[in-house]
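Re: weekly structure request thread

Next one in the queue (299 aa):
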Amino acid sequence: MFSAQTYKERRERLRKQLDGGILFFLGNGEVGMNYADNTYPFRQDSTFLYYFGLDYAGLSAIMDLDSGEDIIFGDELTIDDIVWTGTMPTLSQNALLSGVGKTLPSGELRPLLEKASAQGRSIRFLPPYRGEHSVKLLELLGIAPSEQASKADEGFIKAVVDMRIHKGPEEVEAIEEAVDISTRMHLIAYRMARPGVHEAEIAAAVRREASLRQGTDLSFPTIATVKGQVLHNHGFIHTLKDGDIFLLDAGAENALHYSGDLSSSMPVGEKFTERQELSGRGAGHSGRDDRPGPDEGQS
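Done, posted below.
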């Protein structure tokens, strides 16, 4: 996380752009693959991260624009949870890391929103993109999934976009870290793209580089293919041969969830063929092959 002051300042700037009501932030939950406790890798909602920073499941939050109060909602671990996780900080301890002094159990969220709605106050939310969010908005606000996108608050949306599109120094540093890792991923592929190498070998090496540091991983599913004309080709089923062009579209996401996204086309073999070189000149290809030999390593 960034400092608590960073999150407090972001919320204060957001508060100054909007004129009343309650801003409702939905964090993400765990999603089971084949049963509830065997989950996909967790990824927190990016807007929740931007304003509250807490990177774990089961949270939501409000900003009351009229009272100035911020509240994070969630549930403390039970003894059954602790068997699997070990001792963890409490919700209130975590909330202080984002500069929020008030927390409530998740069961308190619905009564609070119902009371605000009964008072004629606006509950302002962003367009949902997960099924679980649509269900929660239906349960908490009584808005049918088919109506949620149209009822999302335009002023809230524009204010978030305006803030997130302008990066502070700490964000630039995080982005540069992610791009540096992504660049190393592409250099590894560049050195490996030789006849007889399988696409899956390169994809695995790229994934390993993305995952070497705690909290880092791929920022999106890798495309590593000699069939670059097939859009979003994730098969990794071909063996590279001389004369192919290998396409890598891959990037890393760092522990703060800032990402790199790079795309490279490279020759398989000693250099681009004459035809490949001619077709690539518009993109700045020189036709040279500056890769080290196979005994010179990959990093």
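The domain at 169-283 is CATH 3.90.230.10 (Creatine Amidinohydrolase). Residues 169-192 form the longest helix (24 residues).
Next request, please.
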